[in-house]
Specification:
The protein is an all-alpha fold and 171 residues long. It is built from six helices and no strands.
């Protein structure tokens, strides 16, 4: 049995669960706060619920783009002669940075998608969400999800660019 691989699997499962719950809870609370305080949208609004669900999905999907770069990072870190504790700390530190970066990008993609669509259409989508217009919620939600699907690979590549690859041709 490969103890480093087992450690990676356990860390990945635990970090995905803990960070996933934390990211989803933070995003939910942020959206609920903005909806209530800034736009006076009550909690029983189905249209805003659909809108929130699409953002939650998009954020989760974009943050999941961290998985492959983290696996590459772990493989690079595990080739060095480090003890398991140092490997664990390095992996968790890089993972936190990568997840935070992906989370910020995910929020930006969702915000910009909704903002741009709001400006190019003749209706005020926020007001329509406030009025519980389900059709608008479905369209805006679909646009946000589509944008997250289209930007997923770019986010993954962005995270991958931060991996400390060893120099292939030392000078």
């Amino acid at each position: 049995m490969n103890s480093k691989l087992t450690l990676l699997a356990i860390i990945e499962i635990l970090s995905a669960l803990s960070m996933g719950v934390a990211i989803m809870a933070t995003t939910y609370l942020l959206l609920r706060y903005i909806g209530k305080k800034r736009y006076d949208i009550n909690q029983n609004n189905q249209a805003f619920g659909i809108f929130m669900a699409s953002i939650l999905f998009s954020v989760g999907y974009l943050v999941s783009s961290v998985i492959h770069p983290l696996l590459s990072l772990f493989r690079i870190l595990s080739t060095k002669d480090n003890d398991t504790f140092h490997l664990l700390i390095s992996f968790i530190g890089y993972g936190a940075i990568y997840i935070l970066l992906a989370y910020i990008v995910a929020l930006a993609v969702c915000f910009l998608g909704a903002l741009i669509y709001n400006y190019i259409t003749p209706i005020d989508e926020i007001q329509e969400l406030k009025n519980n217009n389900l059709a608008v919620a479905l369209v805006v939600g679909s646009i946000i999800i589509t944008l997250s699907l289209m930007t997923h690979d770019g986010v993954e590549l962005l995270i991958e660019s931060f991996i400390p690859y060893p120099d292939q041709y030392p000078t």
